[in-house]
Predict the 3D structure of the following.
Amino acid sequence: MTEKKRNLERLTGVKGMNDILPRDVSLWFFFEKTVTSILHSYGYQNIRTPILEYTSLFRRGIGEVTDIVEKEMYSFIDSLNGKKLTMRPENTAAIVRAAIEHNLLYDGPKRLWYIGPMFRHERPQRGRYRQFHQVGVEALGFKGPDIDAEIILMCQRLWGDLNLTGIRLELNSLGHKQERAAHRDQLIAYLERYIELLDDDSKHRLYTNPLRVLDTKNPALQDIAANAPKLIDFLGNESLAHFEGIQSLLSENNITFTINPRLVRGLDYYNMTVFEWVTDKLGAQGTVGGGGRYDPLINQLGGKPALACGWALGVERILELIREDQIVVPSEEGCDVYIVHQGAAARSFAFVVAEQLRDAGLDVILHCSSDDVLVSFKSQMKLADASGAAYAVILGDDELQRDEVSIKSLRSDRTSGDNIQQRVPGKRLSEFLTNLIVTRSGKY
Ligand code: HAM
């Protein structure tokens, strides 16, 4: 291929990284507005951290022997200084890093939330992307189990406010480090008895991270995993009391859950409570969110020891569920007014009118075209209609001479007669349109 041809070749986006187009934006806004209103109603504060972090943060935070760190991170060397950087695959480690760096816990615990893109080099399929979005909370400095219950309650409220059904809560406790160590010895001894039957992935994890073998999706290993020693049987009094505490709080708040002793999560920072929200409606990628306690992490990343818990939800998966459940979301498309005009004088006036209407709080599109092309009113009205605007404001020579403007409804029922063109004096336009829009759509 010649250089010239190559330069003209159509470029595409990166595989597994999606464009979010205007037609999808109503759904995103609906979700973002609903979730942020809930987060604020529980007193959580927004925090925004960079997409790039030093690779060592995730290696130390998430754990060396995890799928994310072993195979899924987008990492590269900064050509300016040779440092290793990674595009965040998740945000818990980064929030903890920021909390330590800015001493956020100096005056007490913090409830934080974030939303944004994360990056994992996974095989793309429905509900699994290489760039995806998470909304998450991190409650830093709380012992629980009340905070564990609070963050779960928030999700339950979110499902309710989004009108989503069929999302189940699975719960488990990973106990303390010493309890996991005692369980680990017995688990390894048990799994060694079946070593010939284990797949490569499980063999690899057997001595590095045997708990993850229990999480296997391989159908041939399900019986082995189901009959393995259960961590819950190794929990001491304190861990059991915490676990029972969260269960009673959930029950008192009418949240149903199942205890899944094989739920271990894919990141190594967890201890005690872990949970996942799961649905059957999304095929293989049915986990819409998950989280738990990660008490050792703050200390592990160099901060003063402080307890913590949180969750993250996969935004694309939740949006897919909203689509699947055919939930009607308010449209964000289209604005209040599209101004059509013809001639130099009308164009100048149109700018003034557009700004006045915006001052009055209306959303306005002003027709734009180059000076040398005269676009007929008919064509402009077609564009106005396609824009989704509620009203067209028409400015021509005739209107200009009389100091009037014409208004036409673009969305009303054609049989009711209220789509007839009306004229109002230029001075009264803002007031007239605002009244029309408030009474029609209850906008304000
Ligand atoms: P995670 O389970 O790795 O947890 O991710 C949380 C959610 O992000 C998943 O349940 C899923 O819905 C979504 N997700 C993960 N990977 C993808 C992907 N490739 N494509 C689409 N969605 C995906 C964490 O990230 C922890 N930081 C959660 C947490 C916060 N734990 C404590 N605090």
User: Anything to note?
Assistant: Residues 90-92, 120, 122, 127-129, 132, 134, 136, 138, 266-267, 287-291, 294, 310-312, 314, 316-317 surround histidyl-adenosine monophosphate (CB under 6 Å). The first helix runs from residue 3 to 8. The chain has 16 helices and 16 strands.
